Amino acid sequence: MMEQGSGKGRHAQHSARSVGARRNWRIVVSALVTLALFAGYVVADIYDKVPGSLTLSNGTGSRAQTLDEVREAKDVAGAADLGKPIDKQGVEAAISALGAAPGVGSDFSVAVADAHGTIVASQNDGTPREPASTMKTLTALAASTTLDMGSTFSTEAWLDPSSVHDGSGVVTLKGDGDMLLGAGENDPSHINGRAGLASLADQTAQSLKARKISKIKLRYDDALFGETRYPENIAENNDGNMEYTAVSSMAVDGGRQWGGYGPDDPDTYTAYPPMSTTPTQDAAATFAQLLAARGITVDGDATKGSAAKGSARLGAVRSATLSQVLAFTLRHSDNTLAEEFGRLTALKLGLANSPEGATKAVAAQVTKAGVDTTGLTMADCSGLSPGSKVGVKTLVEVQAHNLQPGNGAAAAEGLSMPGLVGTARNRIEDVDDAGLLRVKTGSLDEVTSMAGNVSRKGGGVLAFAVVVNNPQDLLAARNAIDALVAAMDKL
Description:
Elements: H1 2-5, H2 19-35, H3 37-46, H4 88-100, E1 108-113, E2 119-123, H5 136-144, E3 152-165, E4 168-175, E5 178-181, H6 197-210, E6 215-221, E7 250-252, H7 279-293, E8 297-298, E9 303-304, E10 312-321, H8 322-332, H9 335-349, H10 355-368, H11 392-402, H12 410-413, E11 437-444, E12 447-455, E13 461-469, H13 474-488
Parallel strand pairs: 4-6, 5-7, 6-8, 6-9
Antiparallel strand pairs: 1-2, 1-13, 3-4, 3-10, 11-12, 12-13
Helix pairs in contact: 2-3, 4-13, 5-9, 5-10, 6-7, 8-9, 9-10
């Protein structure tokens, strides 16, 4: 997550210090966050992810706000007239202001388009650049036009009947991709933890006791995503395992290790702890502890294996819908879940069960959706790995697709809303703009980007994309992007 999900140490991009210094700092951060959530909050403050005075940047300070108070509802935009003309001169003026803003430099691209993807004004739109987490918008579009977004993940416990002897047996914990399992009971009011291992343990223990079984050996099946779980070179932007863990058949809370100091709301948090490198084993160990608390003795540690043919299902729990999980992915810019959606898309299309298969699947489905992917290079499905390149024309056409009704709606439902929710929550100057902008942010040490769509105050809509690489001042460049985007709803 680097910006809650997209690069070298959560929002290390806001630092103006050297890359080496940032990496050393993130290693320290990893240890501190493990000890207490408070330390995680401090880190988030330092990298400008939560309100506070701490920062590592020497750039121009931001005037960003969040809409924390309850406000009276009122109409803020007219009907969504997809054909309403856009003020071209106003767009060109906003783009010129971006290019002249301190800290941006010359290595940037920007495009603003109407609801049909026709570019109204742009600068350097033919130059592919490193997109950071705006790459996730491509993955979201590909997944939501390929997968059944109303379906759920299932995590199940299975008993091998042939193993039953003298009150003992072999149970296999099997998942098909729910990396947002909860350690407690099923939680219908949240996405993260909708399916709870404690509820599965209740079902399993009851089924075992009905069969007079009180002692088991536990296995876990983690074969779903094959052997290769990490995109090539992703480790370069994953210091201290702060940004990514292995795509797995199951995990508790995405593998996040809170050290007992997790957030009150599992769907909303601003601190980011280190991530486990063994998420499936951890889920199995949690399940074993829960079974033991329910009177089932688990013999030894859980081991890797698959359910035997003819096994009987003892229990099952189901996740939130894929559309809800995708919304969680986008709002937290979760790199691992983005990679998982790419892998699921590849499996659905019958492509290679690998990171390469995932990027090919995403590129193919985005092209199939009618988006121009000229110059696209995908190092992964999240934008975390170095080496990705995408043009703003591609990004803006994805957002224009999000403005159309029909297939792929889930790609837009999870976008962050400045002033309200997600990674852009703190990136708003005028609270009257809250609710009109739906965006995906992107941040790496040398990248700041944003793509989204806008409900204009005078009626009508537009789509935009902006990518800055190698800025002279990262925080100042980010503020310039915010100013550009703030102008969009008034055009």
